[in-house]
Specification:
homodimer, 217 residues, Rossmann fold, 7-stranded mixed β-sheet, 3-stranded antiparallel β-sheet, DNA-binding
Amino acid sequence: MADGTSAATKRQEGQVPDIVIGRLPLYLRTLILLEKEGKEVTSSQELGKQLGISSAQIRKDLSHFGEFGKQGTGYAVSYLKGQLKEILNLDEVWSVALIGFGDLGHALVHYNRFSERRFNIELIFDADPDKIGHVINGIIIQNAEKIEEIIKAKGIKIAILAVPIEVAQTVTDKLVNAGVRAILNYAPITLKNIPQDVKVQTIDPIAHLQKMTYYLG
Amino acid sequence: MADGTSAATKRQEGQVPDIVIGRLPLYLRTLILLEKEGKEVTSSQELGKQLGISSAQIRKDLSHFGEFGKQGTGYAVSYLKGQLKEILNLDEVWSVALIGFGDLGHALVHYNRFSERRFNIELIFDADPDKIGHVINGIIIQNAEKIEEIIKAKGIKIAILAVPIEVAQTVTDKLVNAGVRAILNYAPITLKNIPQDVKVQTIDPIAHLQKMTYYLG
DNA sequence: TAGATTGTTAATCGATTAACAATC
DNA sequence: TAGATTGTTAATCGATTAACAATC
């Protein structure tokens, strides 16, 4: 994530590194898994083994936010899970706008894990007149021209961008303008003109594959 | 990513950091974009601006592999693109096996960028008897029980894992056993028992969203 | 208690940036 | 030439790891 930290916006005392924030969801994911397996207590060592990282790193990461464990015994799974959820602002249900209803958009709408994790896709937009008006999972596909108007009206802060490359930047400008603060970007392009308080995460499967083929030489 | 490489490497002065390898596909992506725009020459500054990273970092990254630019003028777009493709082993067509033909698998098969970038999905597997035997894009959906047999026979090195969490590890074991060396994993779980020479990249959209909600507090 | 594990400090390791001679 | 930009070195910055006192 480009956090746009410049000399003028030096990391303030007590601010947690972005790379640490990125690991918290993995810790949470693992705790949920352990809980499902019936584990009530865990340790930095066990978590580390599950995730393939060191126990020291986990303890260090958590120490940015407080003390959650007990010497000699470790962490109560349910408690730590709750604390991480709170830290990550996951106690509320987040409304999400999906932009683009092609194959990917279709798959995302049917991906149950979004709602399981309390990300509710509440709006769908597309530019194709043949799609506009159709109802998917009780959601009407809206005209992409109304993105700003409707998102602003609903106060939605999170958008999933699943549009073709060519329109990704234009749509992004609209989303930012509509007050969106987090964009999950599936277009394989670096989005520009992102204000400091708007976060972007780009998912590009091709980039992942190409990173791996390097090692297949 | 573990660097599982023998002493007999192509590069004498040691290993290129994995984090650098991860940026090469982004450089390539940007060069392709610039080429499409008709640009014949670019610079580390321009590339950096496009990607939101420093020009120094781009020059440093490229310097691990050789000298590709000219002082005063910069880089020939087409040439640098070709060099990066070569470095990343992208001159050949890679056959890919897709495991799991749910909504996500469906979207992936229809995602043209895979074939555009020379990743050809050649095999599809699913465990559902209702799906086995159906033909998608000229590819028969095969019984998941034949994963090892068929992948081994075809010598396929890259797999995309789009199966439910519960079976992800079991399928992974089979893939590794069948000789797969790169796994693009869409199951939100850390895969275990991965040999050093097998690479895994996990894509978890929920983790990305949760990273961003931290900042929405 | 004895063993285990946390939270934290200090040391190490690695990545990024700044700066500049070389040179197109 | 004058301006621009590379490739590289050294300095800086930041992240990870090791180690251990505290203590459950």
